Amino acid sequence: MTATIETSPLSKRFDNGARVLDGAEITAAGGRLTLVVGAPGSGRTTLARCLTGVYRPDVGDVTVTVGDWGAVNLTAADPRTVAWLRHQHIASFDGTLATAPIVTAETAVARAARCSPAASAAGLARLGAAELAGTPIGRLRAAGR
Fold it and tell me: Nearest CA to 53 among 40, 38, 72?
């Protein structure tokens, strides 16, 4: 059973007053590769943490729909429900991706996203990076990784 994550416009501000998200919206279908692209400091990590229930947005809702189980609003759910959903239905990683330098970019993306090589190649193409698919990641500059 796969989960779909959908948001209404999300906003998140931290204690120092910095607004990190302002009206961010996304729909991520289960079993599909979803890419979030942006410059450093644009809120990608904060968005991922809102989508996985680590952060609660100040404005907006994150809804996870799991097959026959139904829809759950992560922003209003109790911590036990959020923990169960994260464990059972939400796959994410937060940190450095360690992969052998001889592995191609397409294979590294497919492994990290738990998707097929074809889906990985399609995602790279949507990013305008199709030409990097066969390149060993050890040959990519840090920005390309």
Answer: 72
The residue among 64, 136, 138 whose CA lies nearest residue 104 is 136
Cα–Cα distance, 80 to 21 (Å, whole number): 26
pLDDT tens figures, 70-120: 888 988 988 888 888 777 776 555 544 456 778 888 988 888 888 899 999
Question: How do strand 70-73 and strand 3-7 relate by DSSP bridges?
Answer: unpaired
Token digits of residue 63:
């809804």
Distance separating alpha carbons of residues 89 and 43, to the nearest angstrom? 23
Whether the Cβ atoms of residue 64 and residue 90 lie closer than 8 Å to each other: yes
* SS3 state of residue 114: coil
- Tell me the domains of the chain and their CATH numbers: 3-89 (3.40.50.300), 105-144 (no CATH)
The pTM assigned to this predicted structure is: 0.62
Residue type, 5: I
